[in-house]
Design brief:
The chain has one domain. 79% of the residues lie in helices and 0% in strands. With 283 residues, the protein is mainly alpha-helical.
Length: 283
């Protein structure tokens, strides 16, 4: 599940770039994908004969995770205004380390030396892959990227438990309701949305919405099945998938250093997965 989440979320970044080149902007893309998520999840819930009302005890949970999704999206997309993309990616993917440290402290899982090694090893691979001179270290960009990382870490740590309180479809629908409301108010206060101006831009936006729906849904479903640290480690695949998508769809060139870094990431992820399978086999 988490593997599929990393795959679909990685494609969001690539298709967003195409939409931006066609006249759209981050706020509009976040609004449209959350609107689609809300409508699709709500529609599926109704088609299955289930209600859309939440238990009162879960309303605050959906608001909290809606805020996390909003901060994650805007924090990361806005950080690149102040710092380089490579530094923004690196700061964003400090979140597996945050999860690896916080999860044992919260009593969610036991941290083994092998899992710790894999977390730091995968991060080292990401450093190698993204290192290209980080340019100006503007505190605003750093703060925005780290805020996005903290938001994803919170989702990884508590998302699985949250999804068990109600059906994932209705939970995801309501989480995105709050995102749509906040951005809608922003549009009213600002100059409104900026929609794509070309057919290619609209097709890219449609792809963004589809990939976002599957990515977020698989992320939360995966968190119900595996530990937070393993989920966060697996999500390190997202930059790798983004790079491959950029090569195939945007025809970007990739340096040898980036391939080496991605190979390191895959090796440590594979070791962590095999170690987890061995432990489950013994239990």
């Amino acid at each position: 599940m988490t593997f599929l989440a990393a795959l679909f979320i990685s494609l969001v970044t690539t298709f967003c770039r195409i939409a931006y080149e066609s006249g759209s902007n981050p706020a509009t893309q976040v609004f449209l994908r959350s609107l689609c998520m809300m409508l699709v999840m709500g529609g599926l819930q109704r088609a299955l004969g289930r209600g859309l009302m939440l238990p009162r005890r879960t309303i605050l949970t959906t608001i909290t995770f809606g805020i996390c999704i909003l901060v994650m999206s805007f924090g990361y997309l806005s950080s690149v205004v102040y710092i380089s993309v490579s530094l923004a990616v690196l700061l964003l993917y400090t979140y597996p380390l945050m999860v690896g440290i916080a999860s044992p402290l919260l009593g969610r899982e036991r941290m083994t030396w092998m899992k710790a090694l894999c977390l730091f090893g995968a991060f080292a691979g990401l450093v190698v892959a993204s290192w290209d001179g980080f340019g100006t270290l503007d505190w605003r960009g750093i703060a925005l990227a780290l805020a996005a990382a903290v938001s994803i870490a919170a989702i990884a740590l508590f998302g699985g438990t949250a999804m068990s309180r109600a059906h994932p479809f209705v939970m995801n629908a309501w989480m995105n309701v709050w995102v749509v409301l906040v951005i809608g108010l922003y549009f009213l206060a600002a100059n409104g949305a900026q929609f794509p101006q070309t057919t290619v831009g609209w097709l890219a936006t449609l792809a963004v919405c589809i990939c976002y729906i599957f990515g977020i849904l698989f992320l939360f479903l995966g968190l119900m099945l595996i530990s937070p640290a393993q989920s966060a480690l697996t999500m390190n695949l997202e930059p790798l998938f983004s790079t491959v998508a950029a090569i195939l769809l945007l025809h970007e060139a990739v340096a040898l250093r980036q391939w080496i870094g991605m190979a390191m990431l895959l090796i440590f992820l594979g070791v962590s997965t095999l170690a987890g399978m061995t432990r489950r086999g013994k239990s």
